Amino acid sequence: MNILSWILVGLVAGWLAGVVMKGGGYGVLGDIIVGIIGALVGGWLATSVFGAPGAVNGFNLTSIVVAFLGAVVTIAILRAINPGTRM
């Protein structure tokens, strides 16, 4: 997956996760970063836990869903580590 695909998937997944998690948000750059980290977390979970290799493999619906779920997990972990802030 090229860098542009990672950025686009990260942007969409991070924005969706920010909307669903009802936080103050991270801004555009923060949403991209959270989305990319979410794609990594979601891809790792999909491969390790669910046995679905290559779940994040381009700009498509499957990649966005996996990255979104990973971003939600990432935001939940960030909030658990630092509960005083509403991200």
List the helices and strands and how they pair.
Layout: H1 3-21, H2 27-48, H3 61-81
Helix pairs in contact: 1-2, 1-3, 2-3
Number of beta-strand segments: 0
Total count of domains: 1
Mean pLDDT: 79
- Sketch the major β-sheet: none
Task: Tell me the fraction of residues in β-strands, as a range.
Answer: under 5%
What are the defining features of this structure?
mainly alpha; 0% strand; 87 residues
Describe this structure as you would to a colleague:
Helix content is 71%, strand content 0%. It is built from 3 helices and no strands. The chain is an all-alpha fold and 87 residues long. The radius of gyration is 12 Å and the shape is globular.
Give a concise summary:
The protein has 87 residues and is mainly α. It has helices at residues 3-21, 27-48, 61-81.
